[in-house]
Amino acid sequence: MLIGELSRRTGVHPHQLRYYEDQKLLTPARGANGYREYGADAVVTVVQIRRLLDAGLSTRDIAYLLPCATGTTPELEPCPELLDALRERLRGLDEQIDTLSRTRRALRRYIATTEQQTGPGQAPTPSARDA
């Protein structure tokens, strides 16, 4: 099938499909006319890619994990270093969550301190340095 048909069947724009090819996630054949020709299995592969992206994985992660994926869910079959890669991604997410939590606590402290000085819901009065 050509890229337009794959796009129609998966709901993924052709430019995204070309990006997946650039990232080595899809490997179409080339027809005599130079057009990309995708096999029927490309539909499942694109669905897998989209679902893995929705799980927060990068295309680099997906390139590594895709050979372990089966079905459209996708199910990840045990293959070398699969769990290590997933655990590393989870560690990265945990670090981001910790950073965001610290930032949220700091902002709440600033808000609370400012509200104590001005009263809740009131705008602070301009200071001399604001003038």
Describe this structure in words.
The protein has 131 residues and is mainly alpha-helical. It folds into two domains: 1-78, Multidrug-efflux Transporter Regulator, Chain: A, Domain 2 (Orthogonal Bundle); 80-117. The chain has helices spanning 3-10, 14-22, 41-54, 59-65, 82-118; strands at residues 29-30, 36-37, 69-70, 75-76. Strands 1-2 form a two-stranded antiparallel sheet. It has a two-stranded antiparallel sheet with strand order 3-4. A hairpin with a 5-residue loop joins strand 1 and strand 2. The protein is elongated and about 75 Å long. Residues 112-131 are annotated as: Disordered.
Radius of gyration: 24 Å
> Could you tell me how far the N terminus lies from the C terminus, measured between alpha carbons in angstroms?
67 Å
- Biggest sheet strand order reads 1-2
The tally of beta strands, per DSSP, is: 4
Instruction: Give the number of domains.
Output: 2
Give start-end ranges of low-pLDDT stretches: none
Order of helices and strands: HHEEHHEEH
| Cα shape | elongated
Question: Could you report the average pLDDT, rounded to the nearest whole number?
Answer: 87
Question: What is the count of DSSP helices, taking H or I runs of 4+ residues?
Answer: 5
According to CATH, the fold-level topology of the largest domain is Multidrug-efflux Transporter Regulator, Chain: A, Domain 2
Helix/strand-derived category reads: mainly alpha
How many strands, what sense, and barrel or not for the largest sheet? 2 strands, antiparallel
CATH class annotation of the largest domain: Mainly Alpha
The assigned CATH architecture of the largest domain is Orthogonal Bundle
GO molecular function, one term: DNA binding
InterPro entries: DNA-bd_dom_put_sf, MerR-type_HTH_dom, MerR_fam
Pfam families: MerR_1
Keywords: DNA-binding
